[in-house]
Amino acid sequence: MRTTNIRKITISAMLMALLIIFGRVFLIPIPWTHGNVNLCDAAVLLASLLFGKWYGGTVGGFGALLLDLISGYANFAPFSFLAHGLEGFLAGWLYTRTHNRFLALGVGIVVMVAVYVVANGVLYTWVAGILGIGTDLLQGIIGAVVAALVYQPLKRWGNNE
């Protein structure tokens, strides 16, 4: 039991580090939303599939918060905590309940996009929020594809409860 928890925590910490690396290295700036498209969702969704809602939410929330703080987007940090935390939590919860990977990933992406629409609307304009839907969806879909591909060989490490 203790070994399982240590393994989950260790792998989740590595996924949080990967989230930050993916968010800093693999990014495309998006001028109309003052943000970027990156691969951080891959780590969030992979943690959700492997270990469930609490680990997915923690990796997503705190990883995205730290990513924004070190990337100079402190104004987005609370929104990213909420967007990616909910994305990870809901994807992990749904996958545990339904075992439908695509439903879980899809709902996680939609929630992330919805939070960022509000974030862009509050921080900039509602037009920026609407314009960001496409790029946020693209980021989420690419992250989900990467997570789904990587999940298959790694699922023996997971214990999604």
TrEMBL record:
The keyword Membrane applies. Pfam families: ECF-ribofla_trS. GO terms for cellular component: membrane. The chain crosses the membrane at residues 6-27, 39-56, 76-95, 102-119, 125-151. Keywords: Membrane, Transmembrane, Transmembrane helix. The keyword Nucleotidyltransferase does not apply. This is Integral membrane protein. It comes from Limosilactobacillus gastricus DSM 16045.
